[in-house]
Amino acid sequence: MTDADRRQETLARYGLPDGGPEPCFDALVQAAATRFNVPISTISLIEARRQWFKARIGLDVDEGPLTESFCAKAIEHDDIMVVPDAREDERFRDYPNVTGGTRIRFYAGAPLRMRDGEAIGTICVIDVAPRAPLDLEERAALEDLARRTVAAFELRRDAREQAAETGTPPDSRDWLDQASGYLAKAWAALDLANAGDTVAQVEQLMVEVDARRLARR
What we know:
217 residues, 6-stranded antiparallel sheet, 7 helices, 18% strand
């Protein structure tokens, strides 16, 4: 089985080929664009013959050919792939989206590696001007966004599998209960680390989640 075939099977298990826009993924690319101050950010999924965008900001297309895909190269890496100036990179300098069209210059993409080890795509940030390579803080921020994206996909898969096993849609109360538990652990860990500002943010999230839990009882 080829790498492309394995990715295709993984995408099918996660129910992604037929998925439309979803607020959680839109929020992730918005967070990426804001954090890195770039005009373009996408969650790109790589199929056998095409790249398509689960979420996007700054692009008017839903998909593109693999022959012009930076992300198809990025998933070959275990780490973030950074291209400071695509015009100076022999892998990409002749791409149509570099020589014309979008005129991509800077690219940074973190692979989305699922729990079975398969990388199915990236979350990436793109600029139309060259930029310096990411510093350690920026790399950590993009890695965190990738982890959050993978977690959202994994939750989706778990919900699908639960529905298949029980024959009924997942009960949102169960997921809210889990969210409350995870937030409580995060709150405790952040408190131990004396991360006061972040603790306050997590406390607010806990209040909002608990309100939703009570509303669904």
